[in-house]
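hi got a favour to ask and not much time before my train. below you get a single protein, a line of residues and a line of whole numbers that encode the local backbone shape. could you go over both lines and see whether the tokens make sense for that sequence. a few lines back from you is plenty, here it is:
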Amino acid sequence: MNDGREDVRRAAEDLAERLPDALAPLARLAYNYRWSWLPGGPEVFAAIDPERFVLACQNPVRTLQEVSHATLRRAAADQGLLERIAPVEAQVKADLDRPPYPSIDPARPVAFLCAEYGIHVSLPVYSGGLGALAGDLLKEASDCAVPLVAVGLMYRKGYFRQRIDAGGWQHEYWIDTDPHRLPAALVTGAGEIPLKIEVPIYDQEVTAQIWRVDVGRVPLFLLDTDVPENGPVERWITGRLYESDEHIRLAQYVLLGAGGVRALTALGFEPGVIHLNEGHAALAPVQLAAQEMHSGEQLATGIAAARERTVFTTHTPVPAGNDTYPTSQVEEAIGNLMGQLGIEAREVIALGRTNPEDEDEPFGVTQAALRMSRAANGVSRRHGEVAREMWKALWPELEVSEVPVAHVTNGVHVPTWIGTPIRELMDRHLGEGWMAHAAEPETWARVDQISDADLWQARERQRAGLITELRTRSTNERLQRGDVREYVHAAAKTFDPHVLTIGFARRVATYKRIDLLTRDPEWTQALLGGDQPVQVVLAGKAHPRDEEAKRTLQRLFGMKGAKIVGQRVVFLDDYDLATAAWLVRGCDVWLNVPRPPLEASGTSGMKSVVNGGLQLSVLDGWWAEGYDGENGWALSGEVDSDHQGQDERDASALHKLLDEQVLPAFYDRDEHGIPVAWLARVRASLKTLGPRFSATRMLSEYVSGPYRGS
């Protein structure tokens, strides 16, 4: 098998050659992201050069490449540091040496195909929730030793970066990524010549090389078309994630689907099951069918066989998230590929129509994926219901309840998202190795053994860490926007580690209703500056072409002229995985107010849960099955076509909950200064939500459900 493993080893050896011998283990650690969710892992790299580590976006390879030889010599002489490196290396080695999960044959692993992966902030091939979910699933598969390989694209410019100007308008820019400075190795064949695949896309034979990124035990293979064999347009296919140009974006999907299967074959993998995480890789079953069809067989026969090895997860009920393309454009994009495979393009296009015979209907990637999968699921119980209604027309002979779309509710990778103070507290009380049993209610029931004082102290420490970060970030970003000096310093002087902190951070889209808190400016200012004050942290990106979402963001900044808003509200530019980690660990309340039923799941709130944060959310997505009346707060999840009226009612309900329940619970203290009622809800949240919304539970449901038989 030529799967790039030796290439990763050689890359680590090359890096080790520039390091003192005592630091050589760091080179090996740097080329496997397992260090990133191991206690002490990030700290050993940061200790080499803390400032350089931050500037390098916590990229260990780049850090070790860039630090001076003098710095490396000092680190090699630091006996305390060397003593911290050894156990990290030992733990990673022990983890990688474990036997595989017994019910899936390592010779026929699960192949996971996704357009984005949120593995770590230093690997910029993600945009938001879909990527974070994919990253969490890969890490959990590593933790559980499930044989899984993943395929995506190596975007040379990643997703857009965000800068907000003084008027609140979003500006986008992109930064080049050099894969040679990432924890990635170019996969090579004989003579160490890069292994490449070819895929006909439009009228060109597109060549792609393959990078390997190790995520614990799971290899992630990223296809890259920025190679000399391609012309400038073809090299741009893997330029930017979710490229706005539809021509390029469709080419990305052809590459991910057909190219993904070709890459797995070239690498020596024979997957037992292929998991399409969203419809972007919908052509994977077609490629798989073609590779296994015998001469003269019909496509239907090949697709039937491929379907038995394909499962599909749909992640959104929002129309914009379910791409469609005109028949003529799809024919142009896949015509040569289908000709090479001996398949009629029109047959494939028909699979992506709700009504296959309607030649005026566009091709939908979600419809195609649904038709070519043996099992399909939404990402929460309610989303499963919504998806069955949404796609019923594909099965007109069935009742809605019989439509074959189930659900596997999302979960989050606890080791990645839990903060150090809460983790240390749980380690003391939940038992050794408790994270391996995060899906078991009995594990979280031990939260009752934690005293109020200890639980509150851990929460205070995590909030204080966030506030320290916010004071610096808010000052720097306001300076960069050119704000007046009074506003520049307002939050840094006023943000308080003991004040109730609300977080609202997610993609800025109209249906997310980021402005629900500010619809009544007088109430908002009273909330921020009352006897029981509140401070709010906002973050999120609007799609570059979503002008309405950008205007929503701009209207938020319209309130900054009020002194109390400048003091108590911070918007953080360029929301990414690192910022998300600070926010979910430090905020007391996680606010989520999407317009029902458009929230498929939502995972940021789950990350808040494992850190002792409380949810105030619409009963949509995961919260519709998580809320029990005692473990947080809820707004109505009813669907209402009168959006203005619904917004007014929800804003009123939000005001009432904050004024009458949330603030009193946080600020009502006993004689020791502890909010007993608040902590009762925190305990209820941890005990009821911790086991149900972990990636441990999610992966076990995939293994026992859609993956079964692989």
In short: The first strand starts at residue 110 and ends at 113.
